[in-house]
Design a protein that fits this description.
Blueprint: H1 5-30, H2 35-51, H3 58-61, E1 78-82, E2 86-91, E3 97-101
Antiparallel strand pairs: 1-2, 2-3
Helix pairs in contact: 1-2
């Protein structure tokens, strides 16, 4: 038996909200875990976001490397520099850089 359309949308919306809460919880737990455990948690975060079509907030996107999924503990495994009106995040694990436009307010 198929659910009515309105109820089906409500179910999907509830799943999406639960996934958002789980993503925030995973970010909080990743702060205290080791580097390998945090990378596994970031893999779960990315999987949840893709599966439920959740757009991560810019603040959360900058907390991990989009190439190797390493959670950034600033100055331990990453570096942030302001170069030519861009924030440049450098991952020490994969040696890649993420460049984000920066505009002063």
């Amino acid at each position: 038996m198929q659910l009515p359309l309105k109820r089906e949308k409500d179910v999907k919306r509830r799943w999406r909200e639960e996934a958002k809460d789980k993503i925030l919880a995973l970010f909080k737990t990743a702060e205290t875990k080791t580097e390998h455990q945090a990378r596994e948690l970031m893999r779960k975060v990315r999987h949840l976001a893709l599966r439920h079509r959740i757009r991560l907030e810019p603040v959360l996107k900058r907390r991990f490397c989009k190439y190797c999924l390493t959670f950034f503990h600033l100055s331990k495994n990453s570096r942030v520099r302001l170069i030519k009106k861009r924030l440049v995040y450098t991952c020490f694990y994969c040696k890649r850089q993420m460049r984000i436009p920066y505009k002063r307010k």
